[in-house]
Amino acid sequence: MATVRLDNVRKTYDHGKVAVAGATFEVADGELLVLVGPSGCGKTTLLRMIAGLETASSGTIAIDGRVVNDVPPRERDIAMVFQNYALYPHMSVAENLAFGLKLRGESPAEIERRVHAAAEMLGLKEMLQRRPRQLSGGQRQRVALGRALVREPKVFLLDEPLSNLDAKLRLSMRVEIARLHRRLGATMIYVTHDQIEAMTLGQRIVVLNNGEILQIDTPMRLYERPVNIFVAGFLGSPAMNFLHGTLRTAGAQAQLDIDGATVLPLGDLQSIRPELSNYINRRIVLGLRPEHLHLADSARPNEPVLRAQLEVVEPVGNEVFLNLRFGTNEIVARVPSQSFPPHGADVALSFPPQDLHAFDPQTGQRVPSGR
Fold first, then answer.
1. Residue 371 pLDDT more than 60?
2. Which of 97, 125, 260, 288 has the highest CB neighbour count under 10 A?
3. Is 211 strand, coil or helix?
4. SS3 content of the chain, % helix, strand, coil (to 5)
5. Which residues, listed in sequence order, are joined to residue 365 by a DSSP beta bridge?
6. Quick one: average pLDDT of 226-245?
7. Buried b (16+ CB within 10 A) or exposed e, 290-329
């Protein structure tokens, strides 16, 4: 396998649109790195530049230490899996798997070895003589993966490979890709807009927006310490709640004055979150993840409590999403499944102050803390 390194890679189109604005990162040998962000953020353009399907406007792309900016795609020793499978409909599964190897001039014996090894690994042995139209969406995606696998490339590039599948198939294929990566120890770069895919598959994640890299880190580090409001809101399901207001003090206790009539109690921030003392009497944005809101009870006597109006209850099996209104804010709480009061009732929710995320409202950046 191989490393992949990008140094200040930029892509600007003729009409002046900047698709990628100076991307710099390295993918370690055998790592599965995920590029994630909303549609149009530049993640697929970045992948296509690594593949050689797009030309970088500036910067360098190196695979296994070799700069490949001017190297044609077929000589980069990469294999790409596309969103639309791109299978040849008139060929059998075996012929689809073997096609690229035949073009490369591999011997019949080597082609047969690689095709059968890939079919065994991906559970395609009984389907080798079928045509793509005789396969399910998940089976076609496995053939597309197998076609990349038989190449035995230095780097695998996967561009939204699961987006055409239904929810159940996406889950099973996600597990298959994770197993395949562990088995091969392959270097993989995976593009998706789905933050669940990113969090469950990636050893590290690159978060992009508007062509810029905002943060590169492990999934849990991104979840626990997002660098700005965009990253905080993009990763996590349901999304983080954001409360805008002015930080005030009342004796030793702090509170967020949201709209003059609605106040969020915060407890003793001097001992729990002393870094927020610089924002007293200033505007601030506080973030609180839905799973950190709890139905207030005697088990959490020392936590601040807010009271919000229940609007919609969304049961999803073993847990429930409560959609509530807190002043002018809509918030969501993720709580265990149980009986709830009727719509419109007041619900008391507690939260641990140490789980609050704080952001500067002007820059959108995280307020530094000791955590």
1. no
2. 97
3. coil
4. 30, 35, 35
5. 228
6. 95
7. bebbbbbeeeeeebbebebebeeeeeeeeebbbbbebbeb
